[in-house]
Amino acid sequence: MENIIKDLDIISPEQDASCEAAPRISVESNTGKARKLYIESYGCQMNFSDSEIVTSILHENGFDTTADLESADLILLNTCAIRENAEQKVRHRLKHLVGQKKRKPALMIGVLGCMAERLKTKLLEEEKIVDMVVGPDAYRDLPKLISEADEGQKAVNVFLSREETYADITPVRLNSNGVSAFISIMRGCDNMCSFCVVPFTRGRERSRDAHSIVAEAQDLFDKGYREVTLLGQNVDSYKWESEDKSEKVNFAQLLERVALVHPDLRVRFSTSHPKDITDEVLYTMKKYENICNYIHLPAQSGNSRVLEIMNRTYDREWYMDKIRSIRNILGEDCGISSDMIAGFCTETEEEHRDTLSLMEFVKYDYAYMFAYSERPATPAAKKYTDDIPEDVKKRRLNEIIELQNLHSRERNKRHVGKVHRILIEGTSRRSENDLCGRNSENVMAVFPRGNYQKGQYVNVMVTDSTGGTLIGHIVE
Ligand code: SAH
Ligand code: SF4
Ligand code: F3S
Q: Which ligand is nearest to the CA of 380?
């Protein structure tokens, strides 16, 4: 099976395997600060983006960063709790760090992010080597928590905030190729999908000041970046109001403001929720060439009963109508991707086949696909039994993956024989002589280097495709 998703915890659109990978760990910075921070991120892009905020805070408070675990004075793991195996991964990592701490007793270890928020002080009891547990809204408190830990106390702050957006903090770009960056536009989630831990780990939804978002996009453009991705769990419910209430900005309006920063700045966004995405957003996408023709619109299931007990608040018909609107307004070419969960509580074979048939209807360009993993204290864990046997979940998941692979190949074929505008992101992993970058629909293309470099736009004639990549050459 080609292109099978091995790492089910990496869930947000990220760089294709054929392109230079963005680092998940901190990069080296040597500005003569007293101590070294090593930070490693798990989970979604929101977490990666938060690690950039954490690094910024600690740069101001006596830390340089390092990519070398051995030379670190402080190790931070920014963790994910979305599925059981996401947490397992962190537990294994912590076991691995035990030896490290024995060799260097002054070494401090902190757990940040969603797993920290979910487990709180329990994490200190269960994982003895952890010195600090810090939730996603408490990063400004890190310098204080570090000094507490310096004095030998275990330090914890897991308060969730209704206001914190870190709007004034300029992130230190860790996960970036210098071309494409993420901008967090909101935090938290108010949706309460029954399977999901995010509302508990990230708290209430809040939108960041629109001016600070536009200023960040402008600053990135001035520094040579050519693509920004606006991030939120549910970007369509972005809603910001100025303090004097004279200015109100919804997501479509924000998108327009960011698109107006410069025609050469590509704008992407993630994630859209099927219940909230509006035609206004679709028309704004159509109006601006530099807003990419790509929407991540997670369905989760193709069956209305399952969607109802998932508390997604839309049904199959509603979802299909949204797809029709996208096709009507933005055309057949608009890239669409999804998230799917196989084997949610009580899902029957027939209901599973509805997911497959919805996929046939949409023909997604790409999808992130998962077996249901029960998360303690979520509404689904309280109300329903996780009753689909593991082997059945796996089989259903594999059917979903196989069908998606077929669709990805089919959809990518439509790009062959056409010229695409590609933003060069870097050197191809497979060959030093090739460059790589995406088209507007978010598909990665690989092509011989010529005299070009990352950050430039080129026209690429696509001559071949696979399920994951387009192959071509630059045309003048
Ligand atoms: N806010 C986004 C996604 C956040 S989590 C949205 O609403 O779509 C990313 C994906 O992880 C979800 O879309 C879902 O497909 C998956 N996921 C969340 N909780 C899960 C669970 N308990 N088991 C399996 N997959 C899960
Ligand atoms: Fe979770 Fe649903 Fe919120 Fe997405 S919209 S983060 S799936 S509760
Ligand atoms: Fe993201 Fe995982 Fe938290 S998906 S929001 S890091 S639970």
A: 1
